[in-house]
Amino acid sequence: MKTYSALGAAIALAAVPFLVGLNEYYLFLVTLILLYTTIVVAWQLIGGYGGQLDLGAGAYHGLGAVVTGFLMVNYGVSGWVGLLVSGAAAAGVAFLIGYPSFRLGLKEVWYALSSLALVLILQKIFLLWTDVAGPLERYIPYAEFDPVFMRAGTKIFYYYITAALLASTFLIVSRIRRSKTGLYLISIRENEEAAEMLGVDVRRYKLQALMIYSFIAAVTGGIYASMVGFYHPTLFDSWISIQTATLAIVGGLGHLLGPPIVSIILLTVQEYLRITLGAVIIGLHQVIFGIILVVIIMFKPDGLGPLIDSLARRFPASVRR
Amino acid sequence: MDALVLEGISKNFGALAALTNVNMRVQVGEVVGLIGPNGAGKTTLFNIVTGFTKPDRGRVKLFGEDVTGLQPHQIAARGVARTFQIVKPFFGMTVYETVLVGAYLREKDEDNARQRAEVAMKLTGVYHLRNRYARELNTPQLKLVELARSLATQPKLLMLDEIVAGLTPAEVDAMTALVKRIRDEMGVTVLLVEHVMRFVMNISDRVVVLNYGEVIAEGSPSEVSSNLKVIEAYLGGKSGS
């Protein structure tokens, strides 16, 4: 049954470009939705399992965009290499931030605020650091179709890269969830002192979770920069941080299926509202989106994860019958 | 051989002296009861041994090794397990998962860890609860789960912080038998903090009495219970009445 649902998901992901009629604009939107969903899935590691309310996604996403873009623009380095380098750079920054934070035992709102500050700090640094970024957009050399350089004129190229990234992120996270590391992370979330007394090196496991998540968030940033063809310090975007945590919480903290499904649906709704209402009254789509979130949390304070899990359990049974 | 040695441990919280020059030994294979009135420093002493609190002065030695200042997970790796005075369950996990966390300390392989967890659950009698979430259990059950996950780490020294507080007399007797089995069959050294005299006096080879952060008496249960200083500490001194 599991293989069938995996196969179904893979076919659905592969079919989307044709469902939107290979329209470049829609391809761009669905790629964005999958990119942001990837961050939400990776965020589960630190937020859903590790229990740290991380708001640093925008920092790692931006770092991925700037590092990958910088290497492509200035050295003609392939985007693929750029993704790996930027992922490593983000994991390095995550280590530098995470090590003292977890050593000091920063948690809850204090951790949330300090991780959010990272977004703003990095944005200012790269605005001032004109050798690398600066206030002007830097354009990545155009190529009609150059898969080695990771640059293409059509968005379908980026769509499939992103779909593959989302699928592998989901597999990595679900594998970690079932492993000793996942069990340890959840025990940390549930009670740090008790976990520590059972031999769990709390700092080490939190740091691991943070580094894997930041690596993946940076990769989404690198793909984004290559897709839009430029990079700029505004890609250090605190909205991405908020959106990631919000979608993961509404999707169900620590749930495997809820966050990606909810994230894809809500981001699609958000884009739809933006397209249809965004020009009618400026900001109306955001108001409606906000109301949707509030209503969900009012009626399902634990998010939609438990609901989706029970639906997923019922579904295979009805198929078998 | 000594499982645990405390040498001149002192700890102040601001102006309050929680522990003053405490010297203590626990030999391998012993069951030692640590008693004393509320606020005597028993839990602080536990926190110092397990690395949650750093002593201001003094050394902690486990099985001959100086472990002062190590973190709790490092203490656990050296063979110490502990239950907490106020239970610290993993509410969002099943009993099985909870105990498995402990088992992973010494069993890297998943199958072995599962086996180890099952042995610990059966010994403590929570195996039938294995698929229940901790949030569905009552306090006596949570205490047993806490004991099970501690045992799953395969400790050499087990520290029990008021494990029978709030239990019925029948449950206390069952716990007495269980702790004796743990000591006799698994060869685990036990240090326990307790207020329930029925339990301490039944199970301890030796009792150490703390009062206002100082060791005021030490000896067999009968010696200690007839010690005047101990009676004073519990019932109040003559000068005070």
From TrEMBL, chain A:
It comes from the Archaea. One of its GO terms (cellular component) is plasma membrane. Its main location: membrane. The chain crosses the membrane at residues 25-46, 83-102, 109-129, 156-173, 210-232, 244-269, 276-299. Keywords: Cell membrane, Membrane, Transmembrane, Transmembrane helix. It is found in: Cell membrane. It is a multi-pass membrane protein. GO terms for molecular function: branched-chain amino acid transmembrane transporter activity. Pfam families: BPD_transp_2. This is Branched-chain amino acid ABC transporter permease. It comes from Caldiarchaeum subterraneum.
